[in-house]
Design brief:
This protein is of the alpha+beta class. 43% of the residues lie in helices and 10% in strands. The strands form six sheets. A four-stranded antiparallel β-sheet has the order 4-5-3-6. A four-stranded parallel β-sheet has the order 12-11-8-15, sandwiched between helices. Helix 1 crosses helix 2.
């Protein structure tokens, strides 16, 4: 005997900011409490003490799971519109004499004189809830909020005080039934305190959506609503209730259009959506189904039937067989039979591999075209494969030999800057004479700036400067423009691209008119490309077993070990050192690296064009796209490093 617990989330995507995890956990906890006699009633709602117990256990579960959230998300346990407020610890509270405040907030359901009788309906007919499609991790956001609270910064402290005033205004607007006032205050909260305390809260995508909505909707735009620690995923917008359904469609169009414009620069995990929603007036609620209504969701049977058909019928209990038989009758009556059959067949035979059969052939053709267009070197590729499979190259080989001696820098290895001849005039003369050009390396995708997402680093609007989000490429061109203006010079700026980045960067420069830079801008398209290999088992084991590793707790370590063993098994089954083809064509290759950008300049004709149009150029300053500290300056740079001798 036992309890079978099945959960179903109504197609709400990850990052919705609807507090799905906390409220789902709360529902599970309340259900188990009901089943084990820890509540007064098996069905219906919960009383206040039971709600607080469910909320505290849900928050504890979030913390045990490592999310660090839950405190602000537990309101779904309570019905209707409520105010969630921190409170001072009182005698009888576990925190009393230990902490000023209680860990669990107070949930005050707004009713009676505190809430306008029509405010619920007004909110549901004005608030457009949406998911912009962006993927985001709010863990670092929660850490930032906690850190800034503990540091007691002056700006952040002032911002928190401002939220108290805004919160009072929000409560007043709910009491008065004033939607415009409500929207204005949620927007003010986002633009002021939230952005002050959490600079990462906004994104270029969010700012574009807000700006476009203000322009298109005019006075019918009431304000933006921040739903969680970071926008771009789940968020909201208040609009004129008289045109609510029309604006829902138009907001979705804005989301889709803007996402298409920025898909190369920002990480999107899904297509944007606009929700149909309503206020939950009951909170966590329980209903007992019996008889013919005691059925699980359709997807439950689609998953389980494919496993049951593999078992001996005699080993399946009579009640289980009767349940499945009745459900098939239910499916026939509700036109669910064919979708159920299709799902069962897919689970049984696993024929839904998107790269299989025809798709695999199509991707192979695309891969061959990429090779032809980007200078793939078949001879070099096979040489590398042979070296890799024979163990001549690999992770364990990519280190200094044991007999290598590492010495401190000696006085003869460096030159004191103060002893150098003043070359300022030489540098200024070179810039004025047009002898200097800049080369920015922008061939890569995915980085720490985008949390590993496959977007173009050069175009990623990662920072807000002067009230606008700026990309790496825009900042570098702005620096080149500044130096050119300072010296009255022409400084050609070259941007090295790859097959992954060339077209989007070219399109962006065209749309922005080179971000306002009126000098010559050249694109050096990659003419070298490498195909990825299936990793060698020895390299994976070296990386995971011999390199320093973070120590995890027992359960997390088991999960990590299982994932790594699966990866090793996959590499052995596919063939170590063979070509990696289990992906779309574009993901099978990679740009070869910085050294090849010199040969690319020669092979694609960019260097010849540069010198033809700017014959005075003698020096090209090369830098990574995210090396923002480097600029085309008159001042020399000096570096020192330990020397290695063998």
């Amino acid at each position: 005997m036992g309890i079978e617990l099945v959960t179903k989330v109504n197609d709400i995507p990850k990052g919705s900011r609807f507090a799905v995890s906390t409220n789902l956990l709360g529902s599970i906890i309340s259900l188990l409490m009901r089943a084990t006699g820890q509540t007064k009633n098996l069905t219906g709602g919960l009383d206040e003490n039971e709600r607080r117990l469910v909320a505290s256990r849900a928050i504890l579960g979030e913390w045990i799971g490592g999310s660090g959230g839950g405190w602000q998300d537990s309101g779904g346990v309570w019905p209707g519109i409520k105010a969630i407020q921190g409170t001072f610890a009182q005698p009888g509270d576990p925190e009393y004499d230990i902490s000023r405040g209680t860990l669990l907030p107070r949930h005050r359901v707004l009713d009676g004189e505190d809430v306008h009788p029509e405010i619920g309906e007004k909110i549901m007919k004005s608030l457009v809830l949406m998911h912009g499609g962006m993927a985001s991790n709010v863990g670092p956001i929660l850490e930032m909020v906690t850190e800034k609270y503990l540091l007691r910064g002056a700006q952040e402290t002032a911002a928190r005080q401002q939220t108290n005033e805004i919160f009072d205004n929000i409560l007043a607007s709910i009491k008065e039934g004033d939607i415009q006032k409500l929207g204005a205050n949620t927007a003010r909260n986002f633009e002021g305190p939230i952005k002050t305390i959490i600079p990462w809260a906004s994104t270029y995508f969010t700012e574009q959506i807000i700006a476009k909505a203000k322009q298109e909707f005019g006075a019918d735009y009431y304000g933006f609503l921040m739903l969680g620690g970071m926008s771009g995923g789940g968020m909201g917008m208040f609009v004129n209730p008289d045109k609510y359904e029309d604006y829902k469609v138009r907001v979705l169009d804005l989301l889709r259009t803007t996402k298409q414009e920025l898909s190369a620069a920002l990480p999107f995990a899904m297509e944007p959506v606009v929700y149909n929603w309503s206020i939950n007036k009951r909170g966590t609620w329980s209903t007992l189904h019996d008889g013919n209504e005691a059925l699980m969701p359709e997807q439950y049977y689609a998953i389980h039937v494919s496993g049951l058909v593999k078992q001996d019928p005699e080993s399946i209990s009579y009640l289980r067989r009767a349940e499945i038989d009745y459900f098939t009758t239910y499916c026939e009556q509700n036109n669910l039979a064919y979708p159920l059959l299709r799902t069962i067949v897919s689970n049984l035979f696993k024929v839904s591999d998107p790269t299989a059969q025809g798709n695999r052939s199509l991707e192979n053709d695309k891969a061959e075209q990429i090779k032809r267009d980007n200078g793939f070197d078949y001879v070099q590729h096979e040489d590398i494969r042979e070296e890799l499979q024979k163990g001549r190259i690999g992770l364990s080989r990519n280190r200094l030999h044991a007999e290598t001696a590492i010495d401190d820098v000696q006085p003869t290895d460096v030159v004191q800057f103060a002893d150098l001849q003043d070359v300022t005039q030489l540098g200024e003369d070179a810039i004025r004479a047009g002898k200097v050009a800049v080369l920015s390396l922008a061939a890569g995708v995915g980085s720490r700036w985008t949390k590993g997402a496959g977007v173009i680093k050069a175009l990623n609007p990662f920072v807000e400067i002067g009230g606008r989000h700026r990309s790496f490429l825009e900042i570098h061109l702005a620096k080149t423009r500044r130096v050119a203006q300072e010296y009255g010079a022409k400084i050609p700026h070259i941007v090295a691209t790859s097959y992954l980045t060339h077209a989007p960067i070219r399109q962006t420069l065209k749309q922005t008119r080179n971000y306002g830079y009126d000098g010559a801008v050249y694109l050096s398209e990659g003419r070298s490309i490498g195909q990825r290999f299936v990793p060698m088992e020895r390299d994976l084991r070296f990386m995971w077993e011999e390199m320093p590793q973070e120590t995890l707790d027992e359960n997390k370590q088991k999960v990590r070990d299982a994932v790594r063993n699966t990866m090793i098994g996959w590499a052995k089954s596919k063939g170590e050192g063979t070509d990696y083809v289990d992906n779309i064509a574009a993901q099978r290759f990679s740009p070869l690296g910085h050294w090849y950008e010199v040969s690319n300049l020669l092979r694609n004709g960019t260097l010849a064009r540069l010198l033809r149009e700017n014959p005075a150029v003698e020096t090209i300053m090369l830098h990574n796209i995210d090396t923002l500290g480097l600029t085309c300056t008159r001042r020399p740079w000096a570096t020192t490093a330990p020397r290695a001798t063998r």
